[in-house]
Amino acid sequence: MKLTMRPYHGEDDYWRIRAFLREVLLLNNLRIHSWEVPRLDYWRWHCIANCGYGPPVEQVTYLWETPGGEIAAVLNPEALGEAFLQIDPRWRTPELEEEMIDLAEQQLAVTTSEARRELAVWAHQGDTLREDILTRRGYRQGDRPEYQRIRCLNGSILDMPVPPGYTIRSLGGADELPARSWASWRGFHPNEPDENYQGWEWYPNVQRCPLYRRDLDIVAEAPGGEIAAFCTMWYDDVTRVGMFEPVATVPEHQQRGLGKAVMFEAMRRVQRLGATHVTVGGFSPAANALYAATVSPEYELFYWWEKTL
Predict the structure, then answer these.
(1) Which of 87, 194, 255, 285 is the 20 to 30 Å CA partner of 34?
(2) Number of structural domains, the chain?
(3) What's the CA gap between 230 and 233, in Å, rounded?
(4) Is residue 55 situated within a structural domain?
């Protein structure tokens, strides 16, 4: 049967894509070969709305549908110049992959300051179908993969002790958003000058994500009252999978087990809600050391393949 491609048409498509991603995750036995729903939401409400990663969802998203109108595949970026191929494994063929990459090169490539058009297409290590296509088309594998990890929650979860004076708890109300935002700045921009900090007004956008729950937005409070570490867990009760994004510890509070403590607390909470698994993706050595110790030492590698068109 022939699939039909069309651009994203509006809000109804967004909610259809969410349902599609859930089905694909289950069809792939929870292997993260397409985005999880929380990543789609985070892209829309944080990466685009807060960080300016690119145009709105409706301008850069494309759907392939079956003759019956069911979604078979979705093409979208995360940042400018990237392409993610979300494909129902029942419809995956070399021809579909080629068609999606063709469209990505036409619509999602970015023009650099040197007037070159560049594109990065993401592929899992060992996905020979996509790797062979990308190699033949002149793409080269990048050297900074995402390490994707998954943990089954069928057993007890460690109750990680924290140093005296620290408290693990849920994020507070709106009056605590400035402190939470400042901790995020310190955790992810430790070497930037404080005057580059742009405020906390972005955080309500994160809280607008459909799966956001403040009881799963976990923080470690330091003896002085400041937020020392944090993690946000996104729980999808349809797939019964939780996803960590983001996780960080403020530099002056590192090496005290706080990252592990907030992550284990989040896992216990979603386990009580019925979660069967949690997932996390990491890039840096420090993040991957933490995730290996808390989620799983095993991982799959997810590489970008880049090409100057």
Answers:
(1) 285
(2) 2
(3) 10
(4) yes
What pLDDT score does 114 carry?
82
- pTM greater than 0.90: yes
The strand pair at 217-221 and 167-170 is best described as antiparallel
282 falls within a domain: no
Measure the CA–CA gap between 127 and 140, rounded to whole angstroms. 15
Residues 201 and 114 in one domain: no
- What residues are paired with 306 via a beta bridge? 120, 140
Residues forming a β-bridge with 82: 120
Amino acid at 283: F
Distance, in Å, from the CA atom of 146 to the CA atom of 75, rounded to the nearest integer, reads 19
Detail the DSSP E strand segments found in 112-216: 117-124, 140-141, 146-152, 167-170
pLDDT band at 94 (very low <50, low <70, confident <90, very high): very high
pLDDT tens track for 2-11: 999 999 999 9
If one counts every other C-beta atom within 10 angstroms of the C-beta of residue 238, the result is 12
Please, are residues 230 and 136 in contact by the beta-carbon 8 Å criterion?
Answer: no
pLDDT at 112 > cutoff 90: no
User: Is 247 inside a domain boundary?
Assistant: yes
Question: For the segment 257-273, what is each residue's pLDDT rounded down to a tens digit?
Answer: 999 999 999 999 999 99
Q: What share of the chain in percent tops pLDDT 70?
A: 100
The backbone torsions φ and ψ at residue 71, rounded to the nearest 5 degrees and listed phi first, read -70, 130
**Contact indicator for 217, 232 with CB cutoff of 8 Å:** yes
Angle subtended by helix axes 258-273 and 285-294, to nearest 10:
50
Please report, for residues 195, 268, 290, 297, 301, the alpha-carbon distance to residue 261 in angstroms, rounded to integers and kept in the order given. 30, 11, 11, 17, 26
